[in-house]
Amino acid sequence: MQMWLGQFDRGELDQEAAAATTVAEYDAHIAALERKVGQLTMELDLLKKRRG
Fold first, then answer.
1. How many CB atoms are closer than 10 A to CB 49?
2. How far is CA 29 from the centre of its chain?
3. Which residues, at least 6 apart from 7, have a Cβ–Cβ distance to it below 8 Å?
4. What is the pLDDT of residues 22-51, one digit of tens each?
């Protein structure tokens, strides 16, 4: 996120490009969090099966 702010401040990005970059960063972050939730869910299910 810091990178695009610097580019925007230097005039290298217009508002539309900066917004698109922000959306792409958020989408990537959401995807990473969804993968982590899936991994933790699988680990929890495995632990529940072992306990039972």
1. 8
2. 0
3. 13, 18
4. 888 999 999 999 999 999 999 999 999 998
